[in-house]
Structure prediction request, 723 residues.
Amino acid sequence: MFKLCLVLIFGLIWSTRADISDPYLLKTQSLPSDLNFMPSLSNGHLGYTVFGDAIFMNGVYNGATGNSKRARIPNWINVRTEICDRFGCLSNDQANDISYEMNLHDGYFRYRTSYTSIGITLEQRTYPHRYYNRALVYEVLAIRHNTATLTNSPKYLKLSQEPGKASDAFDFVVINNGSDAADDYRQVRGRTKVLELKKFQPELQEIHVIFSESLEQPRHVMWPTGQPELRHRVIISIDRQESVALKEMKDVLRLNDVALLQTHTDAWHEFWDKSFSIEIIGNALELSRIVNAGIFYLASSLPAPNSNQPNEPYYGLSPTGLARGNLEADYEGHNFWDTEIWMLPVVTQFGYDYAKLLLDYRYKHLEGARYNANATGYKGARFPWESAYTGTEVTNPCCPEVAQQEIHISPDISFALQKLFAQSNDYKWLCERAWPIAAEVAEFLVSRASCEEQNCHFRHVMGPDEDHANIDDNVYTNAVAKIALDFAAWTGGKCDSNKNNTELYAKWRQLKDRLVILHDVDLDYHPQHLGYQLNAIVKQADTILLGYPLQFDTSSTHLNDLHYYANVTRESGPAMTWSMFAANYLATEEDWRAHNYFARGYQSYVRPEFKVWSETPIGYEGSANFLTGIGGFLQALIFGYGGLNFARVDDKLQLQLVSPKMPLNVDQVKVKFIQFADSKCTWSFQFEKLHHDIVVVHRINTLSCSRATIAHNWAAISLLHSK
Prediction:
C-alpha cells in the first residue's frame, strides 16, 4: 500500500526561443587532432574506437592482479576501401569533399568521400550491432552519378584491413582459413596469456572470432562500368563459445544490407523512444548534442535487454567504457567508485534492468570482496578500489596506497543500493541482492573503525581527493559510511530471516552514531579531514558531496563548504567536479552561481567534433571517452536543474521534486522516461509565460505517469509500505 503526498511552491524565471536543428547528428569535415577522441562504439558485448587499433570484449582481461587490463583484440573491423582501376587507386587528396558523421539516434559512424571530377561517391559505415551483439559490421557503398566518366577501364573496390599491431594479450590460432564457399568462414581462436588470480580464475579465457571473409590480403571487389552502385559488407562475430559466434554469423548473413541495418537502428530507436531520452528546447543546440552524445556513449557500453542470443554476465562499467581499456589512461578497463557514484544515477533512468546489471557485478563478486577484506585483516566484504574479472584488487602497482586507503568505495556501493531501492521499490531485489552486500559492507566498516570513548574514526584513509593520502576522518568517507551503516541495519530488519540479530544491527547503528564528522565551528565549514590546512589545494569534489549526492548536510554549513572549496580545487581537476558544484549550488539560495560551474563542467572537457569527453580540460593529458564526467554532467542537469531526488525516509520511499531551475538559453527540458516504483513517467521542467506580452514565467515541473498525471511547482510523492 502507498500514499501520495503533494505540496506546491511557485517561482519565476526568464524564457528563450527553441532551436529546431537535429541534435542527434554530429557532422564534421575534419577529424580530431588526437584520434583518441574519435567516437567509441559498443554494444555491451564488444566495443572499439573508430579508426582505433583495438576491439575489446566484455569481461575479457589479461594480466596478473595489478597488471590485469582489458585484453586487446586487433581491430579487424577497421577496414578501409579505395576506388581503383588498372592504373591505381584514388587518394583522399583527389577528393573534393570528405565528411564524417556520428549518427547518435541510429547508432552508427559514417564517412563519405566525393570525387566530383569523375562523378563517384564512396560511403563507408561501421557499427557494433545493437541486437546481434556478437557482430561487428562494416559496410561500403560506391555510387556512380550521372556525371560519372564512363571508360572501358574496369573499376574495383580495394578493401584493406588495418587492425594495428599483433595483440600481446592473446595467443591466436587460425582454425580455418575460410573460402568463398557458403558457410566456410575464416575462424580464429584466441587464448589470453596470464591469469588475473588463480583462486578465482583457474583457466585462461578463450574467444572465437569468425570472419565473413578473409582480409589477410586486400580484397578486390569488381565494379562493372555499367553498374550505377556497388555494395559490400564485412562481418566479424566474437564470443567465448564457438557455437555462439558461428550462429551469430549465420543469422546476420541471412539478412540483406538494408534489413541488417534496420534491426540495428530499430534497437537504438527503441532505446531513445521507450527507455530514455532528453529533449532540450531553446537556443541550445550544442548543449543538446552534448547531452545526447553523453547518453549514447553511456548506453552503448551496456547490453540491450533484448539480443539475438542471451547476454553474458556483465563485468562492469569502467570510466572510459567498453571500447577502451588496455592503456593506463583508460584505467585498464577496471571498475571504480565511478560506477556507483557518477554513472549509476543516470544509468538507472535508462531502466531498472540496466542499473541492476551494474550492481549484479558487485553481487557476483562478493566473494572476491570478502577475500579482499580477509587478506587485509578485516571482516565482511571490502570491495577493491579497482576490480576487473575476478572482483579482487587489481589497482596498478604504481599506487598501492590508493588500494589500501580508498575504503569509501564499499559504502559507496551500499549508498547506490539504497538509491536504487528508493526509486524501484523492489523488495525482492532488496532482500536477494542488496541485503547480502549491505550486511557484509557494514561488517567491514565495523572492523575497520577505531573507537575511543564516545567517538569512532577511520584512520589512515584517502578520500575522493587523492592529493591527500594517509589521513584520518575524511569527512566524505565518514558520511557515506554512516549512510551505509544505517541502510544495512534498516534492510536487515526487512530482509534478515534471523530475528535474533538485533544486537548486530545495534552495533552497526552505534558505529553510525559515533563516527566523527569534522566541523570547524569558527568558520562553520567541514574540514576535509583531520589536520586539513586552510587553502591547501584539493584534486576534486570531496567534501561538497555531503550535499549532493549524499544529502547528508544541506545546511548553511554546506553552503560555506561550497564557497570555500571552490577556491581551492585544482583547475585541472576532473570534469565531474564542476558539475557537482553546479548541482549543489542549485539546491541553495545562491543557485545563480551554478550556471558558470555547469558550463565549466563540459565546455573545457568535450572535444567538439564528436562530443567525446576528456577526463581533464583541453590542454591537459587525460582519459578519452570519460564516462565518469558524462555521468556527473547529466546528474547536474537531471537532479540539479530538474530538482529531482529519490530517497528512503524511514519506511517511506519518496520521489522528490523541488522548484526547477533552467540552464542558460533553455526554455524547457523534456525527459522520457523517469521510473518510480512501477510507474513510468514523462517529465518536463520549463518556463511558462504568465502574460502574452511579458517574459516573466512560472517554473513548472510536470510529471505524467502511467498511474497519474501531476503538474506542479514542487512535489514530494511518498510511498508508504506495509509488509
